[in-house]
Structures
1.
Amino acid sequence: MQDSIEHKLKSQGYKITAQRKTIIKAFVKAKNHLLSAEKVYEWIKEHERNIDLSTIYRNIELMMNIGVLKKISLDNHVDQYKLSVTNEHHHHIVCVSCGKSEIFKECPVSLIEKSLINKIGFTPIEHKLEILGYCQECTRKSRE
Amino acid sequence: MQDSIEHKLKSQGYKITAQRKTIIKAFVKAKNHLLSAEKVYEWIKEHERNIDLSTIYRNIELMMNIGVLKKISLDNHVDQYKLSVTNEHHHHIVCVSCGKSEIFKECPVSLIEKSLINKIGFTPIEHKLEILGYCQECTRKSRE
DNA sequence: CTAAGTGCAAATCTTTTGCAACTTA
DNA sequence: TAAGTTGCAAAAGATTTGCACTTAG
């Protein structure tokens, strides 16, 4: 995991710095818990040396660009992130209490709400579904 | 619409001020387009008198609290809002190009992605689905 | 009249950016 | 050594707050 991400960075011409390693490590350790930039910063400050927040933001962006990190914005003005190595389409079940998230690949909501979630003991209290794309008019305009 | 919202405010002991009326009007006029606080501010500045941004924020929060406004956070650090009078469970299809949104009540994603969306000419490019609730552990803890 | 609401200015909070100094390959 | 990266400080952008003044009921 750590290695494969570093390899991916290296293969795209990015340098492997101590800071980068540490930031990746923080996400690997977090497993499926969502981390905000601030949380990453604090984890690193506690477990390793200090890394500037701006460095963390820059590397989070980098990791998103190379496709190993996914952003999840809830409604609280703090972006959260987690590693996402698979290319398969999937969604996340996020615990609003502890921040832990799990991946599910069976997309339709009906499956989710009924069996899938109950099967793992998750108590859904709310779900957000936004479908982004182009409406009829904008689809037409973009063709012109 | 305008009246029913004002009535709801009044019935809960809030005063009907000129500013409040105008803010509601902006959302009513916007129909199903999402509006950010800034957009509301600009619309009002253009069509009516000036209202301070803080007043707009305070009233947006108020309207969310009484359940007539819904917040939709996309990934761009700008909260957007739209009137939501129905109590029925529903989701939104949001055009990333023009900001127009539509409600759909048939929830399962499979329906959405297949027929429903194509039926209305919407071109989905991405969809966000977050299910919020409590994971197994937190569910257990909350029972204790 | 008086509690609620507004405008203004300043504060907060998250995220971004410019730049000089420092590393990695 | 050169291009990429970092830390620091400052900026930016969205949202919130304190407070004196104003207004709806």
2.
Amino acid sequence: MAGVTLKKLAELSGLSVRTVNRALKDQRDVAPEKRELVRRLARQYKYIPNIAARNFRLRRKNIVGVLTGDRTGSEADLQKVAELERRLIGAGYYPLLGSTRGSVRHTLEAWNGTVDFVVSFRHPQTPEALEVLADFPCSFIFVDCPADERHHRIAVNRECGIAAAYRCLTDAGCRRIVHCGTSGLRRKFVEHITSGRQGGIEFAYVRTEHPEIEDGFAAGAAIMRSGADAVFFDTDRMAVGFYRYAWAHRIRIPDDISVVGFDDDSVSEVLPPPLSTVAHPVAEIADAIVKIVTSGPEDPVRITLDTVLVRRDSIRRG
Amino acid sequence: MAGVTLKKLAELSGLSVRTVNRALKDQRDVAPEKRELVRRLARQYKYIPNIAARNFRLRRKNIVGVLTGDRTGSEADLQKVAELERRLIGAGYYPLLGSTRGSVRHTLEAWNGTVDFVVSFRHPQTPEALEVLADFPCSFIFVDCPADERHHRIAVNRECGIAAAYRCLTDAGCRRIVHCGTSGLRRKFVEHITSGRQGGIEFAYVRTEHPEIEDGFAAGAAIMRSGADAVFFDTDRMAVGFYRYAWAHRIRIPDDISVVGFDDDSVSEVLPPPLSTVAHPVAEIADAIVKIVTSGPEDPVRITLDTVLVRRDSIRRG
DNA sequence: ATGAAAGCGCTAACAG
DNA sequence: CTGTTAGCGCTTTCAT
């Protein structure tokens, strides 16, 4: 169980640690027969280099910290994390997972010395928490959450996907579009992109308390009462709730009403009919992170990536 | 960026490393004023102990390796991994992620020295791969996949959940139950549990090539043609496909036919109507793993945990 | 071509 | 009460 070390191999072979090391790494200046001897011994005793010790010595790390929240709620975070994990591994790094639920400081302390980069999918809760980060000898990469100038930040532009959805709906001939969500901010944005519209297209807003399935269901009555022929939900979960409402009231999608969601939860592809939705730039985010980790830029990277509309059968054909 | 070390603190304070160390760990036999001095300095220079170095020295690890497969296909694996991560973190460990897609040996080599335990949700592909494990100085915990006597194993008993589903269906008055899946083995089991049944209940089997959504959809015609009043699918994904088929053909669930799936994918709760399904013992698995990791038993732990039926509205009320 | 030795940051046995 | 020191497993500089 204990594992063979370089030193043991040295004793076994009667050579010095240095020579053993040389032989194993196939470096020059080793007598062929000694090289063979060492390699034979290594195989025989199943020598496996202790990477932790090596990294310690070289002050190098093959581990990247990943801080996530609850991973409940929107599935989008989950997708981003999963994709990041995949690419990190592909690039020869291993993701070390932590939660922003407990004490971030505590987690970072526990990671001190094992990671150079920490990716966070949630903003540290308090302003002090942000200050804490400065104490740690590693770089932070914030994804889709605010971050101050000192840290890397990968932002997600939600607006462009939403705008694409509205364009798609109006192009499909929808004339009464309801936006359903919780966010005053987003409402403002929607008002902005719809304000220039002509051709007798009407826009309305239905506000819900939360962005969950039951809220989408509950909003169903108001949406249908408004005479809408299309509805955009701030989350796929709300759209799912609306699907339920439609199912219960024999409302046909998209014949009676077109529906678009947001987040590209895996459900959306599977619903009858498949839900059109705005997807996060999951792959691009992961790429950007891997690039930062591998290239280790001096200055904080700050980029913005766009959401896109995934059109499926829940939007009627123009 | 470089981080303050004990040694630096020693120089700064004019004391020895030992004393600094003592002061910081609040151990006895340190003069109060020196203790204060050291603590002040530590705060001032933002000393954070290098846990990697400490663990290295103490040959102790706060990191647990987690090997997963693609994480595509059944969501059950995903759930298990997510739950494990949560509990591991709760217990003061950090999960280090790897994939069984590439070379497991390579991953284990890269982890040598940083983990004592490796949890695997997939069987190493080849027999040689299993042999390889013996070379590594760490314990393996296999979840829901075969493992030889040397390793810990947490098995999942699928049969009991399936049996519960059949019991529930017959209790609800179903008289023609179709089992739909890909597995010859599971079919054998179903034949077994249904063979003793009386009261004019008929059982049939519809085989599909794959366990995916489209296969469930494709099986719809055969299932309905058979006159079934209940259908059990080997995966929730197939059940989802069947839901689609039902939706397209105006078949009402559960009025026309009761449906049960397997895996408890998150979709199932959300489908109209919510799908009854057999759930894996996700929490129990995670518990068992954490227990092994924290207690480090000498002998290989080998336990079996039961699946359970989650009854939802897709089964008609008796 | 080979080896001695320092040192990464930390712990702890052992002396004073 | 405090300091000296060895050593975890590895890399690498500098002698030989």
